[in-house]
Amino acid sequence: MNKLKTLVVGCGNMGVSHARAYHQLDEFEIVGLVSRKPESREKLSQELGGVPTYDNFDTGLHETKPDVVSINTYPDTHADYAGKSLKAGAHVFVEKPLALTVGEAEELVALAREKNRKMVVGYILRVHPSWTKFVEVARTLGKPLVMRMNLNQQSSGDKWYTHKQLMNSMSPIVDCGVHYVDIMCLMTQSTPISVSAIGANLSKEIDGKMYNYGQLQVRFKDGSVGWYEAGWGPMMSETAVFIKDVIGPKGAVSISDKPKDSSQEIEGHTKTGSLQLHYSELNEEGNFIKKDDFIKTEDEPDHDGLCLLEQEYLLNAIKNDIDLSSHLTDAINSLKIVLAADESVRTGQTVIL
């Protein structure tokens, strides 16, 4: 198999980590870096040994004629860049969300199928060994499940700038929420049936119609329920910023011993520390039969390591012609949930799916 010529678009946190993954894997050859900011693309180019750089996506796509395009840009560009890449005959890796609307996402899935190209969406928690274990244990707790999750980020400086740029196109519960409602769908293996949500704008630095704090609630066909909360900005509290907790009739599993990273540090968004498994069974005296178990997750990958796992997943799909229909269906379903949540924030009404 010839090396897969790869064009990396976006040289921020995610783009850098994915570029390092391609550089590490022998089957990929990075043929270009695209970024509007010369500082970021030139710095990454030097790290990778002098890769050609471009300030325009269309130029980079035309000149490099890649086999793979890796899209790690702001969400409002994802659908456009993915569509152009597929039409040019390239396989696509695209950071979440796939698109800003369900319709656009469905069109891209259909286009990938028509062009017989692989398209992988960056749901990083799906390749995370500790989160895989979290889902596995949650499925042993019986039904219905109660799922409580959040990721609040007290951001300043460059991180707050990035958050404000993201909020030009979507709120925190849409941008981050796709990861966690995807996990909820994996845990329940059930169909979401309704979504409600609340939101608030806590900053004069963002558009009056946008909100930098939100919480969504989702109901599933099997009776399971879940909520997810996300807030960005310098005003956010660092109390209870990382709740990952699932309760069922047989007990509960929680991510515990969260490392004391700042909430705006990207490494802290996926680290787990350990899983605490609680058993609900009581004896004849009404006391717990079992003590809680702690499942250690010390050897989990860092952020670059997780991105490497994602690119190995893409590589396997290309080399072995893996059917990604289920992966893409799940990506669309999680997008449906968070967009319904956004609709609920703006209308004040529960959205029936």
> What is the name of the CATH superfamily of the largest domain?
Dihydrodipicolinate Reductase, domain 2
Q: Which ranges are low-confidence, i.e. pLDDT below 50, for 5 or more consecutive residues?
A: none
Main beta sheet, described? Answer: 10 strands, mixed
Radius of gyration: 21 Å
Distance between the termini: 44 Å
Tally of helical runs: 11
The assembly state of the depicted protein chains is single chain
The CATH architecture term of the largest domain is 2-Layer Sandwich
Tell how many strands the DSSP assignment holds.
Answer: 16
Task: Could you tell me the CATH topology label of the largest domain.
Answer: Dihydrodipicolinate Reductase, domain 2
Strand content: 15-25%
Gross geometry? globular
Helicity level: 25-40%
Mean pLDDT: 95
Integer count of domains: 2
Q: So what's the CATH class of the largest domain? A: Alpha Beta
